[in-house]
Amino acid sequence: MSRELLRIDDLHAWYGESHILHGVNLTVNEGEVVTLLGRNGAGRTTTLRAIVGMTGARKGSIKINGDEVLKLAPHKVARLGVGYCPEERGIFASLTAEENLLLPPRVGAGGMSLDEIYSMFPNLKERASSPGTRLSGGEQQMLAVARILRTGARLLLLDEISEGLAPVIVQKLAEMIRTLKDKGYTIVLVEQNFRFAAPLADRFYVMEHGRIVKTFGQSELSQNMGMLQEYLGV
After folding, report:
1. How far apart (Å, rounded) are the C-alpha atoms in residues 138 and 68?
2. What is the pLDDT of residues 162-217, one digit of tens each?
3. Of 36, 48, 76, 220, which is the most buried if we count CB atoms within 10 A?
């Protein structure tokens, strides 16, 4: 049995007066790929943001490696080996691709070297001296993910990394996730693209109205397709 890396119990979160998460419970074991499924507004992105302390008020429990982190500032959560790749990517337009890669601080041992990054993402090596604004959408997404791999983070929170990208780029991102899993990374995916997420995940959590309404493993995927049709329209 893999050890439990992330545990969330009865998590509530707010943005101002808006109560978004209503008692989320989930666990992620070391080395797993777990996917949060649900329609827009279900609370998936807010769950990722709550883990790293980027929502408003929160209550409940969030434990990483058994340590309670609910009251920690975002930079202190990152230092526990957590890397968050937001949907908006956050590429620094005035910096080159390589400067973007060199910018983040190390939060743990074992961060990938530039050579390792360029081996995984040959496109970025070719565009190393290009400003962030000159990169394609797919290249920007690769850069956003590669940047957190430089930090030494081992728990990766990836938000809609396939959104709006060409199928060939989506396929490369899927290969990247499989490679990272083989290297022992733990990944939580928020994805609207079910066809992208389905073959990658070990386990699935389905969210609706800020709650987990269903959880199942990869081996149970086929028998849950009717339920997913109802909740996701897949």
Report:
1. 36
2. 998 989 999 999 999 999 999 999 999 999 888 899 999 999 999 999 999 999 99
3. 36
- In this structure, the number of other CB atoms found within 10 A of the CB of residue 66 comes to 9
Q: Give DSSP secondary structure letters for 25-46.
A: EEEEETT-EEEEE--TTSSHHH
The CATH number that applies at residue 63 is 3.40.50.300
Query: In terms of pTM, does the model score above 0.85?
Result: yes
The span from the CA of 92 to the CA of 148, in Å, is 14
Q: What's CA 94's distance to the chain center, in Å?
A: 25
Angle, in degrees to the nearest 10, between helices 137-149 and 167-182: 10
d(CA 46, CA 21): 7
How high does pLDDT run on average in the chain? 93
Instruction: Round to whole Å and give the CA distance between 16 and 57.
Output: 8
